[in-house]
Structures are given as structure tokens and as C-alpha cells.
Amino acid sequence: GKVEVAAVMKRKHIAETVTTPTSKKAKLELPGDQNDSLQFLLGSTITTKDFFEQYWEKKPLFIPRKNPNYYQRDGNNLISLSMVREYAKDSELEAGLHLNLCRYVNGVRENLFEEGGKVEEEVLWDLFENQGITIQVLHPQQYIDPIWKLNQQLEIYFQSLVGANCYITPPGSQGLGPHHDDIEAFVLQIEGKKRWRVYDPHPIELPSAFSEAEDIGKPLLDIVLEPGDFLYFPRGFIHQAETTEESHSLHLTISTYQKTSWTEIVTIMMNNAIQMAHESNVEYRRGLPLLYSKYMGTNNTQESQVSREEFISKAKTLAQELFSYLNIDEAVDEFFLDFVTNRLPPYGYPQLPDESSSSESEESEEEMQIAETVIPITEDIQDSWKISLKHEDVIRVVQSEAAITVYVSQHNQKCYHMGAIGDPFCIPFPHLCLDAINMIQDSYNNPVKIGDIPLEGEIRNQFIYPMYYTGLLNIEKN
Question: Which of 5, 66, 265, 424 is the residue whose CA sits 20 to 30 A from 92?
Fold first, then answer.
């Protein structure tokens, strides 16, 4: 009979969606797994090991290739001007959601549409062709399959969100002034030429926010990227780019490691420790001393009262005792679940139809999506059968006192990449399933014999069925 899967939460999504164009999608054969994805960007010039040792978070890397077809397969680029034109024809474009339109002239940046403004196709191309406007296409991985495939592989590699923006600039123009970003940037020059100038980080190294820049000094790099060329620079390195007079330029910026620093982990650790200390230790809940404001504060630093010394000593003691409440693994799980929620689904995994074109509820659509990938089991499960994950790196196992929870990214929707809210899809299991779950976690391309799973009888079936009927598992019948 039908197996009911209880307590499987569904993700809530933001309201805005990116309209998927109905045009033909370019086919691009990229490396077969994530281990080749970064090497594909770097090419044969440098190994990934040398890249991380010499350049990652340290300094820019420019790779000229003299190969305009480097980012092509079967005659198609990752993205092209013609693909963007087709997308604009088939979509209702909204500034800030689908694209931004900007130009930088005489030291002044101009944004032509406020966020949420509708952009008509004819107006878009008139601004591009006649008024020097740069088109920044936002999140093309949400609707262009070759970029979806590349970014999904890179997300497995980096274990961090990997975004993309496409910049199309007319001849002799500049879209953005000097600025630094809060991401590790990989620039892929696809069409035309563009002059890039990259400067030392200022005012701080590895910043956590975007900022326009002044007093930039002399560039470290002053180069012209041509089709097939590659440029990497760490977050914080100031840069600006402008097209030559010869032709338009189209480049793709792949980005990662935004807000993926020790600061994020330590912030979660400390917030959780404070909450735990507050709940378990009455000393943190006691009221502050009466009249404390009379002797504490920046205007009272010269005071030498006993009360002030006691206040400082007490505050330092409570702060130091927080270390006994730190749970680093829980903090990492909490941080990583944001990635699970927002990452791309496996390349090619069926996606739900545009919500605006369907009268079905979100729940029934997601159930239909899963059902398309599952063949019902009509016989007793046999020890000789083998099971394996259908897709690589799609589950995250989290332990708590209440249960073992398997969080699932396989059912994510690419139209919500980097913009989902709420909890990811998940399946809870009792603690006795932990060893079995760990076997499944490592089963992609490495099938597990059902007879080897350390569970028996109906308990084993209740372990297998939820993951199978939510589309996670392949079953090989021998």
C-alpha cells in the first residue's frame, strides 16, 4: 500500500520569480563532476592546488587564452547576446529582479530604473544601442541550463552558494565605477573585449560588503580581456571595466564565498552560547546594579570607584564563561542549512511549472514533481537489492536530542536560487537509523546492498520508503 511520509517540511519561497523563457536552450557539455568544474575555469595553465595556495583570497589571476571558443561546446556559449535578446522577448522584465541598467560617465554612476520598475523590450535595446547603457542580467543560472550545470557543480566543489551575473556593455562605455565586492569573482569573457583595471584592496582586506571606491591609486593589473580569457580577483580588490570602441562586450561573473567567513560561524556560536547561558545560569539573568549608568560608559572611563571595578570584573567573568557554552558543530549545522535551502538543485532535475500559469497548489505541484521520478515498489524489498542516492551531495544529516534529520536540497527550485526562505525539505528519523543514514549518505555511485543495512524487517522498510518515495534513491533489483 501507499507509504505516508510524515513531518516532511516544505520550503516557503519569496514571491518574486524569474520567468523562464520558452526559447530553445543551448546545450553545453561541461565537465562530468564537480572535481573538474573549477579546473574547467582555470584551464591547463594552473592546477586547483596551486590556485588555492597562490591566489585564493590573496591576489588576482589573469589567464589570457587566445582561444575565443574556450567557453563553447557544440557551437554554443555559456551565454550570448542572442540568448539574452531571446529571453527579453519572451519575458516581462523587472529592474532589480531580472536585470539592472546602469552607466558610469564622468565619475557619476546612473541607474536608469528604480527597483521593481518594468522594462519594455524596445526601451531596453534602445538604451543599450544608443545611450551607452550596460545591461546587468541577474541570476542567469535560474533560466540558462549551461550556467545552471556549471554553478551547481561549483557549489558541490566550494560547499558554498555560487551565483552569476552577466554584463553586456556597448562599445566605448562603462557601466560601473571603481568599487569592490564581497565575493570571490571569476570573470569569463564571452564576447567582445573589455579593459579591466584592478587595484589593491582599500581600506580593508577581505571586506564583507560592497562599496564604491575613491583614492584608488595605480592599478595592479591593466589588461584587456578577449573572448575565452579568464580573470579572478578576491573580494575587496577594487576594479573597474570599460569596453573598447571596437564592439560590445559580454562577460559572465561567477561569484562565491559571500558571507562565508569565520565571522559568520563565530556569530552563530556566540549567539547560541548567550541564549544557552541565559537559560541555564541564573547569573546571566540577574539585574544590573542600581545606578550603574552613573559610573559606567565612555564618559566615565576615568572613574576609579569600587562599583566600576566590580562591574567590569563581573562582565568579563560572564563573557569568559560563555566559552563553556559554545557548541561549534551545532553552529556549523545552522550556518550550512542556509546553503542547503538556497543552493541549486541537481542539474536536469524536474522543476515545477511557473506558479502564475498553474492553478495547482504548491504542495500538489511538488508532489507531482517527485512522483515523476519515482516508480512504485510493488513487491517485498529483498536483501539482494541495492540502493544509492540518485544525485550527488543532496542531503545533510543533522543530529539532535529529538531525532536524526535528513535535510534535502534535491527538490530545490532553481528559480529561487539564493532567494528561498524558510526551512529546507527534510525527513526526520529515530536515532537507531544513524548508521544506516551514513551508509546512504555515501552511496552516490557506490550502491549499498540492502542486506548490509544495519536495520531489520519493518524498521528497515520504514527507513527506505520515505527516502525512496521522496525521489532520493535508486533501487537496483538483482
Answer: 424
Cβ pair 138, 98 in contact under 8 A: yes
Taking the model in full, what pTM does it have? 0.88
C-alpha cell at 351: 522543476
**Long-range pairs, 283-287, Cβ under 8 A, ≥24:** 283/318, 284/318
Task: Detail the DSSP E strand segments found in 24-81.
Answer: 61-63, 72-73, 76-77
Report which of 85, 146, 164, 160 is spatially closest to residue 348, judged by C-alpha positions.
146
DSSP per position, 72-92? EETTEESS-HHHHHHHHHHS-
Query: What does the block give as the cell for 405?
Result: 534529520
- Could you tell me the pLDDT band of residue 395, with boundaries at 50, 70 and 90? very high
Edge-first strand listing for the sheet containing 211-212: 211-212, 179-180, 238-243, 194-199, 221-225
Does residue 20 carry a pLDDT above 90?
A: no
CA 471, 473, 474, 478 dihedral sign is negative
The amino acid sitting at 299 is N
H/E run at residue 194: strand 194-199
